[in-house]
Amino acid sequence: MRKQIAAINMTLDGFCDHTAGIADNELHQHYNDLLSSAGAILFGRITYQLMESYWPIVVKKPTGNKPIDEFAVTIEGISKIVFSRTLKNVGWKNAKLAKRGIEEEVFDLKQQAGKDILVGSPSLIVALMKLNLIDEYQFCIQPIVLGSGLPLFKNINGKIMLKLLKTKTLNSGSIILYYEPTKNDC
Amino acid sequence: MGKLSVFNFTTLNGFYKGPNEDISWHEHGGEESEYAAEGANSESTLLLGRITYQMMVAYWPTALAYQNMPDVAKGMNNSEKIVFSRTLKEVKWKNTRLIKNNIVEAVKKLKETSETSMTILGSGSIITQFAEANLIDEYQIMVDPVAIGKGTPMFKNMRDKLSLKLENVRTFKSGVLLLLYKPLKK
């Protein structure tokens, strides 16, 4: 069965803010490798609009930075499923709006043959976590403290206990923590 | 000059306590307790805010503490301790004194006049103040493999962004991680 992987960058004080981190070549390469191992990405509206406003441009006009240009091509090629109550259509290549709710859609996707499924939107991660549909978490902890911002697990109840699988340290001082779920009383 | 360190355990989403001072999510096994005992029995002076002091003084001097974690209890009770509080009238723990005002100046002076290292435990309120004054030399953060939805982040109300350098990573068998950071010079 395909794995549902939640991957997101976070500051040391638990805020996910895509502009705050150190996005160097090593990090881009790390996410390139992750994308290449996946068959689909799930997006909430905000993350989708964020990504769609930038990456297609890089495909048309490459920056000259290899990991960034590679990322643009890979993310364009991968199947993208967007969950939104308000968007009427999505224009990005290989993207489609989910017609069903997230539980049905993900349950179905996992049954199909194929590579792993990624999710990086905070709202979707929490929704899938509550439904016990995430098989692996990859948190990239950036070596920065912001003081405020969007907390990742804002809407969970109770506590989520996880099992540490491994860690990967990057030269920038970012560290990726790999966890899998245990029991949870969300 | 004395070194000022922070030693704190947090959830993986950056909280050092849940609502109403809840730290029940925190479970440390034997390996981590040994590590804590080493720290508690070092020559370091412990620096505490009011809330952390009140929680600790209600536990460490008791028979239960000596029964559960004898080495840590010994270290905690015997260490030199300073409590920072404008509202407490007095402190009633062995080897403990109270500093009521100008705490940043007080710690600056302690660093300048003494070679003794100091360690802040818990005490999110004072961590923020000393971090903003560039007085903290090292952060030892134990990341528990647990996430909670509501809580207090370690650097609550920090005004500026803090950039850190990851110096060391240690994994405990339980999945708890010890991350050692030093501030990047501003």
What does this protein structure show overall?
- The complex is a heterodimer of chains A (186) and B (186).
- With 186 residues, chain A is of the alpha/beta class.
- Helices cover 31% and strands 31% of the residues of chain A.
- Chain A has an 8-stranded mixed beta sheet.
- In chain A, helix 1 (25-36) packs parallel to helix 4 (66-77).
- Chain B has 186 residues and is of the alpha/beta class.
- Chain B has 6 helices and 11 strands.
- In chain B, the strands form 2 sheets. Chain B has an 8-stranded mixed beta sheet. A two-stranded antiparallel ribbon of chain B has the order 2-9.
- In chain B, helix 1 (30-40) runs parallel beside helix 4.
- Chain B is globular, with a radius of gyration of 16 Å.
- The interface between A and B is large, with 36 and 35 residues.
- Strand 7 (144-145) of chain A pairs antiparallel with strand 10 of chain B.
Return the string of H and E elements of chain A.
EHEHHHEEHEHEEEE
Secondary-structure class of chain B: alpha/beta
* Main sheet attributes: strand count, strand direction, barrel closure of chain A: 8 strands, mixed
Largest beta-sheet characterization of chain B:
8 strands, mixed
Helix proportion range of chain B: 25-40%
Taking all residues together, what is the mean pLDDT of chain A?
91
| Order of adjacent strands in the largest pleated sheet of chain A | 4-3-2-5-1-6-9-8
The helix count of chain A comes to 6
- The stretches of 5 or more residues of chain B where confidence is low (pLDDT under 50) are none
Q: Report how far the terminal alpha carbons of chain A are from each other.
A: 24 Å
SS class of chain A: alpha/beta
Radius of gyration of chain A, in Å, reads 16 Å
Instruction: State the largest interface.
Output: A-B, 36 and 35 residues
